Amino acid sequence: MKHIFAADIGGTNSRFGHFTVTENDCLLLAEVVWLKTTDAGSFRHLLDNLGGNGFPLLPEAADIVVFAVAGPVEDGVRSRPPFIAWDIDLSSVQEKVDLKKCLLINDFVAQAFACSSEAGERAKVILTGRTVAGAPVAVIGAGTGLGKALLIQAGHGRYRAIPSEGGHSNFSFVTEREHAYQEFLLREHHEQYVTGNTVVSGKGLSYLHHFLTGRKKEPEEVAQEFSLYPETLAWAAKFYGRACRNYVLETLARGGLFVTGGLAARAPEMLEHSEFGKEFRSSDTLAHLLEQVPVSLITDENSGLWGAAVLARQTLREATDA
Description:
The protein has helices at 43-52, 90-96, 107-114, 118-121, 176-189, 196-199, 202-213, 219-224, 230-251, 262-266, 269-272, 274-280, 287-290, 303-321, and strands at 2-9, 13-21, 27-36, 64-69, 73-74, 78-79, 88-89, 102-106, 124-127, 137-142, 146-155, 158-164, 257-260, 295-297. It has 2 domains: 2-113 and 302-321, Nucleotidyltransferase, domain 5 (2-Layer Sandwich), CATH 3.30.420; 123-297, Hexokinase, domain 1, CATH 3.40.367.20. Helix 3 crosses helix 14, helix 7 crosses helix 9 and helix 9 packs parallel to helix 12. It is of the alpha/beta class.
């Protein structure tokens, strides 16, 4: 039996999972702990907080450790996450702790691998379609920011995931009223330009509700009151659909689209709203292609841990086969 230490470090929450790989290669989740990322003053402090919460598996006791972080990874060991107050450097950790094998990956690389896990198998179908064998699978999700990645088959049951920082690129606005919202966001958020991270995210939901109603509320409050504010829900669904459509077209992800992340998992009505499907399949040139792309929602909020564990198991297999 092999033991996997998996971590999904986000801008708001950090999740930790202890997985085991059985003799017949089954992946089992033994324990999960969630911590507030903002409660830690450094990466080392976060790991110390985990130890103080009685997590049963120390990183040095695991056969492999995978840290997934909400930011780009440099040289496989460093990351400066844009929405976390501290950096991660595995080389400094490994100077103090003897880790057998350790990987640092982008959090949406983990979400991509999650599509081939139990979390992906339990995903809810939002829009039906027909996948193309061997085509890329697009993965997108909103939480603190907007994450994106691609999952590609690598043969012999293996996968590769390609990260993206597309959430930091411009978000497109169309109608006159949408452009008024764009000007509102530029005043409120003080960005050079409005990004997908601002529009399709938790804070984006708060900004949108403020613009449409004049009321300032936390994202959780807005989502809980969608039935009282149908215009907020319709706009949120439309913007999410637009982000998904654009990513599928940019990547030709005819293997399907998986939506993940805390926002849609907690408020699936955004994807179930008619404006989502209408916007996703809206194209003057490629509507026929978009109509064939199935969309599924991963509702398991530990999906990043599952993805990190799937990659860990694949890495262990490859080491054995080498």
